[in-house]
Amino acid sequence: MASSQRKSSISRTTGETDIRLELNVDGTGVSRIDTGVPFFDHMLTLFAKHGRFDLTVEAKGDIEIDFHHTVEDVGIVLGSAFKEAVGDKKGIFRYGSGIYPMDESLVRIALDVSGRPFLDYRAPENVPHIGDKFNFTLVEEFLRAFAFNALINLHVAILYGRDPHHMAEGTFKGLARSLDDATRIDERIADVIPSTKDVL
Q1: Residue 108 backbone class (left: φ over 0; alpha: ψ -120 to 50; beta: rest)
Q2: pLDDT band at 4 (very low <50, low <70, confident <90, very high)
Q3: What does the pLDDT read at residue 196?
Q4: Is the confidence at residue 3, as pLDDT, over 70?
Q5: Which neighbouring-strand residues pair with 108?
Q6: Residue 11 to residue 131: CA distance in whole angstroms
Q7: Residue 188 burial class via C-beta count within 10 angstroms: exposed 0-12, middle 13-18, buried 19 and up
Q8: Strand-strand pairing, 31-34 and 17-24
Q9: Predicted confidence (pLDDT) at residue 32 exceeds the cutoff of 90
Q10: Alpha helices in the chain (DSSP H)
Q11: Most buried pick, 31, 61, 113, 142, via CB within 10 A?
């Protein structure tokens, strides 16, 4: 699959959220994000910038009740968009990993675009809310929704940190960088699916 074709556009409407999302895996990091949750908008903007993904997200959700549905459902749609955009996975490097600092915080990410969804998430206990409203546990909810809909094997460990904003930011930036590495085309095997099974 030519890299210029690695785009997707997905809409999803439920009784709790209404989401429109466009993704170009081979972009330059341009984004337009509006979820109604300012901190989440910030994280998705960082995700697009550091992954070199062009990303548009328009989401309306029941944020007057809680941010949970909006964050989780955007994860579902973004994961589905990645799965669709990457397609048959011919030529991709498949794996991505790294250890990513964000000031006093350090995050380890490892992932495999394997077609087999899994999330292992490890973080300090009882991390406080970010600002007044954004519950830190929503980071895990987003990652789970994303991994299971992108069909990737994802391991995230927040090794240490004090500031919840920094821990979340390191996670989103690290996920983006590792995804960019994993979905990049290896020209040596551009027409080959990187698996002995010949399918991912």
Answers
A1: beta
A2: low
A3: 86
A4: no
A5: 99, 157
A6: 30
A7: exposed
A8: unpaired
A9: yes
A10: 38-51, 68-86, 137-150, 164-183
A11: 142
Query: Residues 100-135: pLDDT tens digits?
Result: 999 999 999 999 999 999 999 999 999 999 987 899
What span, in angstroms and rounded, lies between the C-alpha atoms of 188 and 32?
A: 34
Q: What is the pLDDT of residue 2?
A: 41
CB atoms within 10 A of CB 7: 16
Residues 146-166 have pLDDT tens digits of 999 999 999 999 999 999 999
Residue with token string 């799965």: 83
Which domains are assigned to the chain?
3-189 (3.30.230.40)
Pairing of strands 153-160, 118-122: parallel
Tokens 């998430």, residue located:
121
Handedness of CA 167, 173, 176, 181 (dihedral sign): negative
Look up tokens 């996920």; give the residue.
175
* Phi, psi at 148, each rounded to 5°: -75, -20
Q: Give the H or E element holding residue 8.
A: strand 7-13
Q: What percent of the chain has pLDDT over 90?
A: 92
- How far, in Å, CA of 92 to CA of 114, rounded? 11
| Distance in angstroms (rounded) separating the CA atoms of residues 11 and 20 | 4
142 residue type, one letter: F
CA-nearest of 82, 84, 60, 54 to 73 is: 60
Mean pLDDT of the chain: 95
